[in-house]
Amino acid sequence: MEEIMKIDTVEQYNELFGFQTRHPLVNMVDFDRPESQGNYRMTVGFYGIFLKETKGCIINYGKNHYDFDDKTVVSFAPGQTVGYTRIEGTLPKSIGLLFHPDFIRGTSLGQKIKKYTFFSYEANEALHLSAEERMVVHNCLAIVRAELQHAIDKHTKSLICTNIELLLDYCMRFYERQFITRQDMNLDVLSRFEKLIDEYLNSESALQNGVPSVQYFADKICLSPNYFGDLVKKETGKSAKEYIQLKMLDIAKEALLYPEKSITQVANKLGFQYPQHFVRFFKRYEGITPSQYRLKN
């Protein structure tokens, strides 16, 4: 079995690949030289965002990998397993920005970091950049690089964090553009999502496996939960969880019109283990209990 290294700090990463440590918690790295090449798998303890400019390597996450076109952005977060595999006969070229959670703690970026859901996207959900977008990313990275080459002073942390935050905000914008340009593919995903929900709720699946989850449908469609959720939100204006629950609500309303079905039976059909959980769920959306809805209709 392939060994997975545990690389908790930016300094450890620098040592592994032979990069200079200019700051213990943040660094810019360049994969464009022979000494930085090799095959690795590691679990990391920091954030990373890479602008990949050639097809010189494969970057994988968990068991998934994708041989990217050039000019793509990939990212990873603490706790994720990252692989790096050289493609023989080619020289990789990529620029990476690494930063430890401790570096952004107590900053605006630290408060916002969870909103950048693309850190949990799978490798095959990489961001593909236009020439103009690539220039924006390069400019943000260049400012961080210049700041790291400057002597550390009281302004270093705030200036670097501000520019990392700017870079991540641009990536959010570019991903939204990518969702729009891939609209045909997105509509196919939504169509499959609708069908899977119907199959789940109209079979014994809910009875056997419980209330349907976003993770379940993301797995079926072969997307990461975050990418899937962001895609659904972009196309429908609702979160994937809300979309599922509204479907459950429609089925519950239909079932409640049949008086021979008890509240417990309706709850079980939707995957609720306890009827009182179903009652709370229903009241949250309708403002009345299932029994009151049945009497009213």
From TrEMBL:
Ranges for domain HTH araC/xylS-type: 191-296
Protein name according to UniProt: AraC family transcriptional regulator
GO molecular function, one term: DNA-binding transcription factor activity
Top-level taxon of origin: Bacteria
Keywords: DNA-binding, Transcription, Transcription regulation
Lineage of origin: Bacteria, Pseudomonadati, Bacteroidota, Bacteroidia, Bacteroidales
